[in-house]
Amino acid sequence: MKDHYRMVSWWLRKDDLPWPNRKSEEKFRRRAACMAREGVNAAIIFGAHFRWDFMPVIGQLHELIAFVADELHQYGIVLFDHHSSVLSCNYNPDPGRFNARKTYSNHRQMLISPPDGFLPREMLDEWKMKDAGGRNVFYPQYAAQSFCMNNPDFREAYYAYLKRLVADTAIDGLMSDDAIFPLSGCFCPFCRARFRREYGLEYPPAGDFSFWRNRDNPDYRAMIRMRLDSVRDYFRGVTASLPRNFPLMSCCASSIHPALLERGLTYGSFIEAGANTVMLEMCGNTPDAGGALFRKELPSQLLHLAMAEKSGLPCIGLGYGFSSDAAFMVWAFNKFLNSGTWYSSLVHRLGLSDQDMRRIPDDPEQLDGIFRFEEKHAEWFHAAGAGDVAVLFPCDTVANFGGMEEDCAKDYSALCMYLLEHGFSADVVTDVPDAGSRWKVLLVPSAVCVSEEKYASMKRWTDAGKTAVVLGPFGFRTASGAPAEKSFASRCDLPVSFPEKGRGSLCDPRNAALPPGECVPEGVFHPYPGFHWFTRRFSSGVPAGFSETLAGCRRLHAEGWASRRYVDPAGRLLVHFIALEYCVALDESLEKRRDAHSPAFLSLKIISGITPKHGKPVSMTVPEGFSRVELLEPYSRREPRDLSMQELCSIPLQPGCPYFLLRFHPAR
Questions:
Q1: What is 145-160 written as a DSSP string?
Q2: What are the residues facing 390 on neighbouring strands?
Q3: Is pLDDT at 412 greater than 70 in this prediction?
Q4: What is the CATH number of the domain that holds 14?
């Protein structure tokens, strides 16, 4: 397992089978050599995603993957396989399942059609998730159906497949995807039996608004826990089917959205079940087509980084693009956050013909030396966080209250963005830190559900002289989502109430339109020394007096730039700067040739050029205790150079520089 992954996708196309395939062998040799030249240290299979659909030719596919692994191993590059463990398209009886708009553009598939009868259709149907009427659940976005993780026959079949996969291919790691539930739930006999066995509850009818998607109902909260447990138990079986300490991850673009949690999706479950690598997926473009770098991804990424740091695991940030500028920005985004990088094109989602897709360079060809530059200057990117502000992600609230982003996640995201844009190098945590940690201020956004343990740990935090700042509703429910017998406000004799008890069922569209509840009255309260409670939600606006609570924290504000602080093993301070806004140029020729009905037509653009919109020149003073300072500009691939004290007043950057680092050496 690597601490700092420099990963790219290894795409398989529909003409790579049947195998052996002389033309593809030569292509693969050239690709492996290119990856070695570019400093890639890990590749990951992309393109044979719906693995169950390849069962009729699984021997050929495994021989192909083994060939790729052998070519890469000659250069010291590891290979991950990457597939969906549960989704199937070819066994879907929909006659339009191979429609190019619904599948080829969307699935990253080689799109072979195995013959009916290779696996008994009756058996496959028994494995599948069922709706309330007993029909197979259909996923329109994938034109696919899903096998159920609670079906023991399916589980054992997949675990047996994993053992064969590792034995046949000599892969070095695995990304096992898509083990989640539909929001409407799976009504198969095994899910019903589990709910009855573990919770003593029966499935209500599908149209029962008093239950489905109603977090005020404790039985539905139990359903969420069952789904999380189901995913966790299934993934434990995946871990047990692999060699000891085998690198393992799964897909998860975000763990902050309550609807995803209702589907059983949070990376915390994968880690508990044995995942030893954390994946951060940056959907869409980086930056987006409007030129913003951090508009939607940063809060999700910070939470996954927190999970990884807590468990001592490496992170890999997956970003998509189609040019060397895009590859650089995906890499820079990850280095700014102290994460490994996985760069990938996503050509099969663009709605282009085979001929047009070939106009986009292969993934390693887009790197333009940036991985090799990182490898050469590795000591600049091996460091630990040095910020002094921590944001506590309210896990219990996202899991058990409300169900809409506006109820909690939106406040968390707004707070993360405020800190970034105002020069604070903030970290996210999932537990109240130990009082001896580096952080000075703990910020807690909209934690409606709070455990007794959290109350006690926050009191220990402030008793040690640290500051706790609570924003929005706090402590009106228990950690499990039940109304608290005594809210935090009543415990502290504070005249604060939270009128909204919950949204009711989100199956009723009227409830989804309800505004989030607000505390009454709006103001700031100080229940005990070091504790500040601003009752206004942060997404409603920055409350008066909030900035004063951060007065003792280090801040480095440069207009148009974001910054983060790290300290390396030698005690040197590293400050990363990245531009916030960009001018983006599209490949108009290819954009005009796209199918406007393709799944990613609006969310993913073919960006060919990215240049920063810079604000004022960056200037800073030498921090206390440091003397010599160096500048590193990866975009120009220049070697690091010393800066004079005068140059720090207006740091001299190469034109078009979107990302740079300063390294301060301790004074002797």
A1: EEB-TT-HHHHHHHHH
A2: 427, 442
A3: yes
A4: 3.20.20.80
